[in-house]
Design goal:
- The protein is an all-beta fold.
- 25% of the residues are buried.
- It contains no helices and eleven strands.
- The chain has a single domain, classed as Jelly Rolls.
- Strands 3, 4, 5, 6, 9, 10 and 11 form a seven-stranded antiparallel beta sheet that branches.
Amino acid sequence: MEYDSPVVITQPGIYTASLYSGNRIAGKVSQKFHFNKATGKKLVLAEHPSKSYPGDGAFTLVNGIQNEMGLARSKEFLGFSGTDMDVTIDLGKDQAVAAIVLHTLHLPASWIYLPREIEISCMPYIDTTVITRHAPIETFTFKVSDEKNIQEIVLPKQMNCRYIRVVAKNTGIIPSGNPGSGEKAWLFIDEIEVK
């Protein structure tokens, strides 16, 4: 297909675009897309990420692109310096939610730490005109105890909800004996999956 308008991605997979010079390929680029219940959905961040690591804005969290190259592709992360990531995702309609997967980065040598804990809330309704968050139906809190970049949180029970609020708590101040000790820790978030 010749590119003459935006391509709508409707299925997961690897998509490749090639640049031709005459009949020869002069270059190509490929991108892998993953789909889940949050992909492409509307969302609201309570606080903007650092101007140093803005990604592609809040949509970075639900764009279906999962970072596979760490800091080499840092533009795929939202970076929070000393602050939490607090996002509310509108699933568009009530959906069954059994797990949340948070794609993060753990690189203490670069002052980047995993969240110390993650809160997941199911919310029945949000007044978007004034961003009123009504009391959640239920909130679950999980301590992050391993050093994996992908945090899969299986909920104790399946929830049915339209809005999912995910709060990843920043480590805060880097402990002594570590690179950057006494400074604010970075929290890098790439993608949020809702299963």
